[in-house]
Amino acid sequence: MARGLKWGCSYKRTTLIVCSINIVIALYVLRSLYASLYLYSSNDFNRVVKYTPDQIRRMEESIRIRRAREPVELVKTVKELKKEFNREERVIELPKEVKNKITDEILERLRSLNANANTSEQRNAVENWRKEKLQEVKLLARETEGLTSSNLKEEAGILVRALESDWAVLSENIGLWVPAEVIHQEHDDKPEGEEEPDEVLPGRPLPPECHAELHTDYDGAAVRWGLTHHKESAADCCQACLDQAKYAKPGEKKCNIWVYCPSETGCYSPDIYQHKNQECWLKYAEKPKLNFKDWYSESYRDSHPNAPLIVPWVSGVVSA
To answer: How far apart are CA 275 and CA 279, in angstroms?
Structure first.
């Protein structure tokens, strides 16, 4: 019995010692972990915040450059646009019946004008109505100042604002648009006594021997078919006529008429063909005769609906 009691006490003492040792080891491990974590955090903090003077100088220089290159005007413009947008968004919507009344009054004012009134008179009439209406509404707003809760007072204040600062928005909302009058003034800076310049043909100038006639179409037998004979300019077409006459073989007809199409959209002719820009017709006629000159007559255009008003061709009669 005594031996059993002795072993029981020894077992309890051993268990207590083992538990104490485990607790000491656990505390030691926790202390070690906390110390390592503190050291790591301290080292990491020191790495982040400690900069050399040269690094600090570079960072300050970088900040200065960014500020110097900041688009100040653009930022200012954007802020102003935001204010404008916010102002437009804050526009108080007028009641529909008030809008209808304003529209009717403006229309009545415009109807009172003469039928031949120009846009300036129309704009003045609308502006005079706006000023008169604004004075009327301001007077109404002053008369309702003593009222603490009145829909009439509130509507008067809204209408004053609409007729003053928000007039452009209100005009758009009610569909009012009067176009600005465009005054065209022709400036004649031509020296006195100087004649108007002749119509300029594309390409190099025509020599006098070509005897060029604008808006003219001469008749004659074709020496060179123009549908397949194109030249860069009327001067080149005239030169082709002169060269053909100079080098013509015995018995061949010599060119004494040249007809050229200078229009980029082509030239009209009563035949079945489509005549394009730069066509150069070389012709011969013993007695050159005009087909058309300056413009097509009204009777001709009645019978030829596709004919333009002005003759598009340019021609000349040369010495063969």
So the answer is: 7
